[in-house]
Each structure stands twice: as structure tokens, then as C-alpha cells.
Design brief:
The protein is mostly beta strands. It contains six helices and 22 strands.
Amino acid sequence: MPATCAVRVLFLVAALCIGAGSAAAQASPYIPLDHPLLALLEHLIARGDVEDPSPHVRPLRRADAARVLTRADTADHGTSRLVRRLRDEFAERSSPMWEAEARAGGQAYTSARRDLLRPDGNDGAAPYADLALRATFGPIVAVTRPAIEPRVTDDPDWPGRRNVDVAGRLVEGYVGAQFRYARLLYGQLDHNWGPVGVPGIPLSSYGYERQGVMLEIGNRAVRLTALATDLNDGTDSAGVVNHRYYFVHRLGVRLSSRLDFAAWEGNVLAGAGRQFETRYRNPLSFGYLANTIGVGDRGNEMLGIDARWRGFGRTVLEAQLALDDFWYKDRAFNRDRWALTVAGSGPVGAAAAWRAMYTQVSSLALRAFNRAENFTDAGVGIGRNFSDYDQLLVRVSLPLFERWLVTPEVTAIRQGEGRIEDPYPEGPDLIATPALFIGTVERTFRAGVAVTGRAGLLDLSAEGGFLRITNAGHVEGATDDRFEARIQATLGLRWSGAISEDE
């Protein structure tokens, strides 16, 4: 992020703190997407036992999780003890306060890429350790979590250095100001905007954490969320360096106790000597009108809508639809590009939950005539990492002993030969390109199971499954049967305490 932008953010934080007065609320850290107990909370939300405090937007604040858990019915039913346990885990702490958590253990994997549906990279085993430090001072929260993780140097999606023996990364690192109707965050942590279970289309945690400024205004009924971030520079075929930026914002509205709706848009800006112009960072602007067909098209614009409906008892239906760089005229000179997800979830018996979803990304989605405007960062998708595919997923989750979540699932993927970083076709090649499934279609079927949770000092995240791949590598008739798995196990110690209010 440019230094001038960072300075503005700091001045804004200071102004909010000075002017907040009695409107200030106690700040709360965000629950990271790799938290060992988050899957158990998502399980309760999928069952309908706990309200979703922020549909289609993750991460959640710890205070928001505690609030919906407190409101949940704890009568004698199959998940009441789990609700109470998570309520204690995410309970509000007094402020000012500090927390420290140190974890150390190891990782083992059949391929270094975190996505087991698209295995790549070497297999191996490596140590893992991180140190999380958190502090709250009234409306201010500060969090940092550096980690030692040698596995990343074998991960094809890793954007950092590979020629090191001991690799490190910052899993979380942010400072935020939180008030009753406004929150501002500067730093980095994982985000996912979309139905839980697959990477969101506009923003996801598929890649590694990115720096940015995030703004939230409103409450559960109406909420505006915006994120502005730098992307890694890219070099075109002439050797010219293109500066790249990404801005995404979303307006969510709770239309009733059963129905949530949101509209969002994301814009990739790129060019030699390009700056992150202020008008592209306006969270209240409809950029497609104001910029794309207003002053002129200087970016790759994606438009989207989200919907969530609790329809039949506790059954929830969700949808996310995106149009990438929609042309309202001269349509014969371009192809429509889209991505979509439809999903459903609900309870099974007294304690289990089901989730099913179908997602599709068209062959040319997430790409642009100017490759610097692709929805990628260092070659990895900002939201989705693949174009030209569809996927069907069905899973069941079951909590064990209020500590572990066991999740068997089956998944089927059809992948065409279109690639998110391929050059965009032009002229007759563009018109002749199929809207979905270019060339030979690779088909993957996977049956697997995941286990995640925390018991005492032990945090565990494990996943494995058998893959049956036909037309492997897009070669007609080729097959590949393989087992892919990963596990991370750590032992951790946690400390916390109050911070003296003496000046």
C-alpha cells in the first residue's frame, strides 16, 4: 500500500478515536479462518442452531460469535453442550487486556499445495510454529501472528522466497478501530466472501494473506464492507512494469429474518505508472456506472450479487453470481464471462449437518484483454484460482465430544483447458472459444474426510481422500488414481491478562 494511503489511514484512525466518545465499543479480534474451532462454529450455523452474524463475509469477530452463541437455545438438544463450550471459548474479555498464544508442532503432506483437489508441489514433512499476540485498548485492537512454515517453499501458490531453508510468513498482522456502527482495519488476514465451503468469487483465502485497508459501516440489518489492497506488480511482453491494485466493496441488507441480499463489485486496476486513484476507492460509488461507463474503462470490473434464504425449517439456501467485465454494447466483440455458486445446508438428526453446493466458472472468466487486469495476484487467484470448470460437492459434518468435527465429503470436478493466466483470445479465436470447457475435459472424483478441532493443548487439522482422475492432464483416456492428504498437529500454550490503565 502506498505510504500516503497508510498515512491517511492512521490519521483516520486517530480522528475516529478522538471523536468516538461514548459511541466507542470494546474492540474484538477476528477469528482467523484457520482457527481449530471455527469449523465447529460453522457446523452450528449450517444446522441453524446458531445465527450467522455476517452471511457470506468472513472472518467473524470473536465478539460477534459470542453474541450469536449467547442467543442460541441451550435447551437439551444434540448440540447444546457444544454451544456452551464455544460460548466459553469466544467469550468477551475485559479491556484493556492482552493475550499470547504459542504453538509448535509439525506438518505432513502428500503435496505442498494446500488445495488437495488440485494437488501440486513436493510431498514431505516439516516443522511448524507460530506466536500470536493480541491486545485491546477500548475500541482499539492489535494482532500479530508470525509463523515458521518451511512447507511454503514447495507450494506453487506461495508468492515469497523459495531459496531459504527456514521460511516464515505473517499469518495475521493488523490494527483496528471498532465502534458501534463503524470498523476500520489496516493490515493483513485471510478473507472469504461467499458461501462457506468453497473459495468466494470476489475474495477468498485460496492464496496467502494480503495487506489492505478494510472498512465496515452499519449493523446486521445494513452493512457496507470495503477492502482496498495492492497487488503484486506484473511485467508485460514488452518488459513494462504494470502497477496493480484491487478494490472490492459490498452492500448487504437483511430484508427479513429469513432473507439476506447483497450487491458487490470488484475492480482490478493496472498500468505502467498507474496510481490507486481515489475515485476507484470510494466505497459508496457504483464503479460500473461512475468509472467503467462513466469517465472511461480503466480497469477490469466484476459485478456480483449474494442471496441467503432460510426457507424450510432450518434449511438454508444460498447463491452467489458474478459477471466479469460485462459489455452492455458491442456484445458481438466479446464473450460473457461469469461465475456462480448455489448451496444448501441444514440439520441431520440431533447433531449432524449437511451441506451441498454446485459452483461454475466460465472458460474466460477472471481474465481480461490486458493480462495485468486478470483477477490474480502473483499468478494466484484473488478469489477463485481456476477458470473453465464446475464442481459439485456434498458433505456431512458431525461433532465428537464437543472438541472435534469429522466431515466426510464427495466431490466431482470437470476442468476444461482454460487457465486463469492464459492470454485472452482475440478476433475469430475469441468468438470460437466455448463458453465452458475448452478442449479435453479432465474429470476428478474425490471421496475424503477431514478432522479438525482442539482438545487441551492439542490443535489438529487433518484431511485426506482418494482421487480418481480421468483424462488426466487433459489427455484423452489417461487415468490417475491417487491418495492425497495433509495433517497439521501442534501443542500450544495460552496466556492472558489485564493491562494497567495507568498513564
